[in-house]
Design a protein that fits this description.
heterodimer, A: 407 residues, alpha/beta, FAD/NAD(P)-binding domain, D-Amino Acid Oxidase, Chain A, domain 2, eight-stranded mixed β-sheet, six-stranded mixed β-sheet, 10 helices, 29% helix, B: Folate-binding fold, four-stranded antiparallel β-sheet, 35% strand
Chain lengths: 407, 86
């Protein structure tokens, strides 16, 4: 059923000898970039090279949560733009992305967390993002099933409430963008592996793939958790990335009980109720890098224990499926979007950690501008790779919920 | 994530007793004039290779020893040293 030779529907044009741009990775960031290249930059000779099938990686493995309550002034506008784009993309793609802006509730479990949230809320408001601080009673009004008892491991002190966030059907975004890109002339080559990037005098000249060599002056590598390994393998450039596994699972469908995305840093748990009724929930990251995407019984046990403390009504509910995806973590929890440095014609868009889904539309739009014009848009300038060498790391690690490769 | 690690002192133990300490990048850069690029290379840069990587680990919940080992990140299994390495 999941054989590698399965015939994939649609999007199978013949591989051309040359393209204006080749995008390595058939995930959301490249699908969005390709769509914006075709629609806004009038660049139609674009190929997407995907080793498996579109949406195989993080695009289809995330828990579909979108929000714009990041910490720093460089990051918040990018995520806000992405959040504002969901209704626009739904219309432009003529595809129901099932955006449900139910709002996010970040639980706070200590006085220190409440103070940190106060700063976070103030920053968000300054940047024009709606965000509120709730006390424990107000939190329970928002989430009636929540356990306010002081007898649990981490009692709830309050919450940061971010109304414009919510959930989006991630598969629909993959299908909508792929269909939209293909209609605008983008070639999507699935089951085609990128084997190498050819350079001459410090300039990109082509891409070697399992289906033949393509001549191109521009390559964008945006292959989620596989990006850093690919860039090192193909060009010998090392990135400040650790690739960690993050696990997620869904329960059997239930009647509506969660009106918001609920997350807790102390419990390492986030949960939302999908439009089908399942509770989709995720865990903290595996503590060492690996590419297996294996799931483990220990995490299912941890999720069950944490969820039952916070939402006791879930006791006895069964998990139906669990899976894992790769998150490429940078030391400052902010992505790397860069181009023409150190190789002319090489662009990269990676290091998103577990924020790649919520940002894909805005990142794709700006990367499309960058690739088409060779001019780095102002919004992407802080995300240069050189910031690590220059000790200009961003402050995103001060955000409320974060797991770095080191903890 | 099941992983068994061979500690040089305590023997084969559950991976969760250990702390991952990053890819092995050779000796600590020492000297009067180390460039920002060299520091970047030592502090942040990783190969992220899906395959056999030499890594630092610490037996945090055991003897506390820091040591290097070889692990295949594609299969998440500790392996013996590749030929030519020790």
């Amino acid at each position: 059923m999941f054989g590698m030779k399965k015939i994939l529907p649609g999007f199978a044009p013949p591989l051309k000898f040359s393209y204006d741009a080749v995008l390595i990775g058939g995930g959301l960031h490249n699908l969005a970039t390709a769509w914006f290249l075709a629609r806004e930059q009038n660049m139609n000779s674009v190929a997407i090279i995907e080793k498996n099938y579109i949406g195989y990686g993080g695009a289809g493995r995330n828990t579909a949560i979108v929000r714009a309550n990041q910490r720093t002034r460089e990051n918040i506008p990018l995520y806000k733009e992405a959040l504002d784009l969901w209704p626009v993309m739904t219309r432009e793609l003529d595809f129901n992305l099932m955006f449900y802006n139910c709002g996010n509730v970040n639980l706070l479990h200590s006085e220190a967390a409440v103070k940190a949230a106060r700063v976070n809320v103030a920053t968000a408001r300054l940047m024009g993002v709606e965000s509120h601080l709730l006390d424990a009673a107000e939190t329970q009004k928002r989430v009636p099933a929540l356990n306010l008892s002081h007898q649990i491991t981490h009692p709830v002190h309050g919450a940061m409430y971010h109304p414009p966030g919510g959930i989006v059907r991630h598969d629909a975004v993959v299908w909508g963008l792929a269909r939209g890109a293909a209609e605008n002339g983008v070639h999507i080559h699935q089951q085609t592996e990128a084997l190498g990037i050819e350079t001459e005098n410090g300039k990109v000249t082509g891409v070697r793939t399992s289906a033949g060599t393509i001549a191109t002056p521009r390559v964008l590598v945006s292959a989620g958790g596989y990006s850093a390994g690919l860039i090192y393998h193909m060009l010998g450039i090392k990135l400040p990335i650790s690739v960690l596994t993050i696990q997620a699972m869904v329960t059997q469908p239930l009647k509506p009980l969660l009106n918001h995305v609920v997350s807790s840093g102390a419990y390492h748990v986030y949960a939302n109720q999908t439009l089908k009724g399942e509770i989709a929930t995720g865990a903290h990251m595996d503590p060492w890098p690996n590419y297996t995407t294996q799931t483990t019984a220990g995490y299912i046990k941890h999720q069950a224990e944490a969820l039952i403390e916070l939402l006791p009504c879930l006791a006895g509910v069964k998990f139906m499926r669990s899976w894992a995806g790769l998150a490429d973590m940078t030391p400052d929890m902010a992505p790397i979007m860069d181009g023409n440095d150190p190789v002319e014609g090489l662009f990269m868009n990676c290091g998103w950690g577990y924020f790649g889904f919520k940002s894909c539309t805005a990142a794709g739009r700006h990367m499309a501008r960058f690739v088409a014009t060779d001019q780095c848009p102002d919004r992407l300038k802080p995300f240069t790779l050189r910031r690590f060498e220059n000790h200009r790391l961003m402050g995103e690690t001060a955000a409320l919920v974060n797991y770095t490769p080191d903890n | 994530m099941s992983l068994l690690i061979q500690c040089p002192i305590c023997g084969r133990r559950n991976g969760y007793e250990f702390r991952y300490g990053g890819e092995d990048k050779g000796p600590y850069p020492d000297g009067p004039s180390i460039s920002p690029a060299q520091w970047y290379d030592y502090v942040h840069a990783n190969t992220c290779r899906a395959g056999v990587v030499r890594e630092w680990w610490c037996h945090r919940q055991g003897c506390g020893l820091w040591f290097t080992l070889f692990r295949d990140t594609g299969t998440n299994v500790q392996v013996s040293a590749p030929e030519g390495e020790q």
